[in-house]
Protein 1
Amino acid sequence: MTAHYDLAIIGTGSGNSLVTPDFDDKLVAVIESGRFGGTCLNVGCIPTKMFVYAADTADHVTGAARYGVDATLDGVRWTDVRDRIFGRIDPIAEGGKQWRIDGPNTTAYLGRARFTGERELTVSLDDGGEAVLTADQVVIATGGHPVVPPVVEQSGVPFHTSDTIMRVDALPKHMVVVGGGYIACEMAHVFSSFGTEVTILARGDRLLRHLDDDLSERFTEIARGHWDVRTGTEVTALETVGDGIRATLGDGSTVEADLLLVATGRAPSTPDLHTDKAGVELHDDGRVRVDDYGRTTASGVWALGDVSSPYQLKHVANAEARAVAHNLVHPDDLRAMPHDHVPAAVFTNPQIASVGLTESECREQGLRYTTKVQAFGDVAYGWAMEDTTGICKVIADPATGRLLGAHLLGPFSSSLVQPLVQAMAFGTTAHELARGQYWIHPALAEVVENALLGLELDAD
Ligand SMILES: Cc1cc2nc3c(=O)[nH]c(=O)nc-3n(C[C@H](O)[C@H](O)[C@H](O)COP(=O)(O)OP(=O)(O)OC[C@H]3O[C@@H](n4cnc5c(N)ncnc54)[C@H](O)[C@@H]3O)c2cc1C
Ligand SMILES: NC(=O)c1ccc[n+]([C@@H]2O[C@H](COP(=O)([O-])OP(=O)(O)OC[C@H]3O[C@@H](n4cnc5c(N)ncnc54)[C@H](O)[C@@H]3O)[C@@H](O)[C@H]2O)c1
């Protein structure tokens, strides 16, 4: 029997929020092959930031002496940290699943979906069975999954990805991280602050290479003070040694550890979706091809979030879901996916946040621009914190005074960046933002105010 629905949603991350009151009198199929709530809730943003907060707390203790406050870190109860986090998260995922199972107009399919025709899905159910369903509209919200390089996969050594690392039973003594991006830098911070010795193996010459050069260079230098950072290196072989692993690097050197974390990017979850059966085209990198409104190349099939987006960020997936939720029921009044001025933060040590263009992007685009770099240590709250490395770099168009980009490295950067995001979103000029409002003295936000005031604009 083929069941028919008004709407079928594949994936309960951001896809779960599509079941709006507009569908109260309609039939909705919700299909999920993993934990309800998707990456962010179960293995992404939320647990990582809960671990990061605990790691920051440990760092406050170990760093207290510089303020004349002597304190020692007596220990980190890893399983207590872990269980507090997942004790809070797991019931939410379970509750979300029950809500969809019991929902008056939703049918939950627990299993893996694939297209078997136009707007027709076959679900390999977790209980071993199979179900076929069709729908007037289908939304692909299957997110992404960790990429594991062949050298790791083919070696047969045990390894972790972000999907598993947060649930390990004990803190490793020594951990090797392959990759130098978001997950590598956030996890290195967590584990090293809890007492694990961390070695990072990065292919490039710097960590977090997507950042403005001033930040990635500075961050890599700081990271070398916390962790054993090996840049410009590749893993050529891996083997199991006792309970741990040994990695051989391009220069023939080796590094041994009791745990291997692979953090080499995430790929859109399309390989087993059989999108070709539904007329849904993919980009070369596997992302579903969508137009500005989230429409795929197949009529009535939509996509959103990591599976199709140019960004792999939850606030973007949420914004795209809001647009698609509207578009599903307003075909004559479509809303575009909001992709302007997308900010991002890396919750490592120190925190990093950015929005807009980097200086090299401004150069490459031939833009006329001016920059100002303000040190956290030059404002009163920065003195209080004894900060010696933080910077706020702002980039503006000198003719219009509009911000082109903003890049922060230092405590609370993920929050400090927000007025800069707001200025870019609403077209406020740098000096309007700085002079048109009060900035509380002596709050850390004065670093942003001073950076803005320091920009040399044509109008001044
Ligand atoms: C460790 C980590 C930390 C992160 N931290 C941040 C952060 O701090 N801030 C931020 O903005 N972003 C962060 N991200 C990125 C963020 O988690 C993702 O951008 C976001 O969750 C993507 O949401 P989504 O709805 O597109 O996909 P997902 O949340 O991944 O949802 C997809 C769902 O589809 C299901 N699924 C897949 N294929 C099928 C199928 N064939 N059939 C049925 N179900 C299927 C999956 O099981 C999953 O539940 C982080 C990611 C990771 C991995
Ligand atoms: N705070 C946040 O917003 C946050 C946190 C975690 C993850 N995320 C999202 O999840 C995505 C995935 O995170 P990630 O850290 O896995 O990816 P990433 O793209 O940030 O970093 C991947 C790293 O792996 C390296 N790499 C790629 N292939 C490799 C290979 N074969 N061998 C060795 N190194 C290789 C890259 O050079 C890069 O340093 C991020 O791009 C981000 O969008 C966001």
Protein 2
Amino acid sequence: MSKSFEILDVSLRDGSHSVRHAFTEEQVRAVAKGLNAAGVRYFEVSHGDGLGGSSLQYGLSATDELKLIETAVSECTTSEVSVLLIPGIGTKENLQAAARLGAKMVRVATHVTEADVAAQHIQLGRELGLKTAGFLMMSHMAPVEKIVEQAKLFESYGAEIVYVTDSAGAMLPQDVTARIQALRQELQCEIGFHAHNNLSMAMANTIAAVESGATYIDGSIRALGAGAGNTQTEVMVAVLEKLGYQADIDLYKILDVANQVIAPMMQQPQEITGGSLLLGHAGVYSSFLLHAQKAAQQFGVDERDILMELGRMKTVGGQEDLIYEVAQHLIKA
Ligand SMILES: C[C@H](O)CC(=O)C(=O)O
Ligand SMILES: [Mn+2]
């Protein structure tokens, strides 16, 4: 059986949201070592909101992400470290610094209708010799034709992979199939998919993506990620192998990382709570969940009302400040 796709593990980046950006150097070393030993080809290390994300708006990192990237790289013999960069949060200098420390891949992320802001960062990724991808966040918010248009922009800037990103965990398998099939037909580059499990659809959506032609798939161990988390890497390895695909990842070794390294790091279980379910139902950015819970506590309002309102307002990543405004407004209502 030949290798069918690459799994990119996002535990050390999307998982940063779930641990409130508190990863330590020792934790990152242990995870990186385990992923490398298990044969995971790519894994991502950055603040949850990408390079440069450490701030009051997005949450301060306990440890400088460059230190974490350097530590992760030092544990890699076959794995390669990816970084995420959102133009406007991360800068070209942040990317140059990550590349100097040995990062080998960058995923430049924009809102699904704003791919045009990524041109310079994608071009820089290629100039630095990094594997370079475009990452269309909140893909549930745009129709197929818009996704194709935006993905073509990424490709024209030099992206080697374009990801459909279900940031809100709001998509159903047919939504994924329609988007990935259209991209597969219209683009020359590779197609990737990133899921969130807010409606318990992450695995089904991942299968739909692979069966529609996606060759780069994200997962996180124990689903450590924003909201209800991502497609669970170790489960994905088992499921896709049962379906006849080959992941080339050692199942026992990835389970060891899950049980011995990630499980003790988790601040709360990655389960579908009322809040995370509403993220998917209302179509809200998964990383808003912990902010909404904090605001709900601070203002004495129901987190579900905050999330429903954020969904109605069609808020997108970068509008974290609105979470507190909405909470304040709900007291007055
Ligand atoms: C910055 C976001 O957390 C990126 C991501 O993982 C998503 O949109 O989903
Ligand atoms: Mn995510």
